[in-house]
Design brief:
Layout: H1 2-9, H2 19-23, H3 28-31, H4 34-37, H5 41-51, E1 58-62, H6 68-76, E2 81-86, H7 89-102, E3 107-111, E4 124-127, H8 149-164, E5 171-175, E6 186-192, E7 197-202
Parallel strand pairs: 1-2, 1-4, 2-3, 4-5
Antiparallel strand pairs: 5-7, 6-7
Helix pairs in contact: 1-7, 5-6
Bound molecules: S-adenosylmethionine.
Length: 203
């Protein structure tokens, strides 16, 4: 098994030394998408420090791709639990393979559309511009799913409604967000990485 070979050659913690090394956890088709579609390790660390400021919180990555944010956050801030929901089954499989290679305990991945997920059991949220692929001018990762402006609007509306129902104090970290998905009562409390990474708390 390639996974077992990987884990026996490189100690789990060394995979987090650099994005290039972490990239090696995935098949070439996914690692080539890494720069554009998956969260850099430095961003994952900063976002996790904000989201997991308290112990034992449950954090959801909305559109988790190959699981890079969840797996890195779970490594750098291990006293929280991280769940990723992802619509592409092949990416969920890759996320689970990477989780297995690293032996990550505090991470879970769900295959599905976030619109169908109950947000009740999650305390805080991470969002890396997941719906932007619905614009025709974006370089999409594949042709497996439908893209449309209507879906973009529908997803933003659905996420706004779900975040709207969360209690005061809920934290959200966004990376490269258009902010169309953010309810008005979430306030920016900090920014990093030239304003591309924003930290929000619900009033
Ligand atoms: C920019 S990638 C971010 C991946 C991951 N959060 C990270 O930071 O490494 C966005 C992901 O969101 C997923 N996505 C988009 N719309 C979704 C939806 N409605 N439900 C679940 N996943 C979705 C895409 O398939 C893609 O893998």
């Amino acid at each position: 098994m390639p996974t077992d070979r990987k884990s026996s050659i490189i100690p789990a913690s060394n995979w987090f030394d650099s994005d290039e090394r972490f990239d090696g956890l995935y098949p070439a088709s996914s690692s080539s998408l890494m720069k554009r579609h998956w969260t850099p390790l430095q961003v994952a660390t900063k976002a996790a420090q904000f989201l997991a400021a308290e112990k034992n919180v449950s954090i959801l990555d909305i559109g988790s791709g190959v699981g890079k944010f969840c797996i890195a956050a779970a490594h750098f801030m291990p006293e929280a639990f991280y769940t990723g929901i992802e619509q592409r089954e092949n990416l969920v499989e890759q996320a689970n393979e990477a989780k297995k290679t690293l032996g990550s305990k505090n991470v879970d991945f769900i295959h599905g559309n976030f619109t169908k997920l109950n947000f009740k059991k999650f305390d805080h949220f991470y969002f890396f511009n997941s719906f932007y692929e619905n614009f025709s001018f974006t370089e999409n990762m594949d042709t497996e799913i439908e893209y449309s402006k209507e879906l973009y609007e529908q997803y933003n509306y659905s996420l706004r409604m779900k975040l709207e129902q969360k209690p005061s104090g809920t934290r959200l970290a966004t990376f490269h967000s258009t902010e169309d998905e953010i309810p008005e009562n979430f306030l920016v409390v900090g920014t990093e990485m030239d304003n591309t990474l924003k930290f929000w708390i619900k009033l």
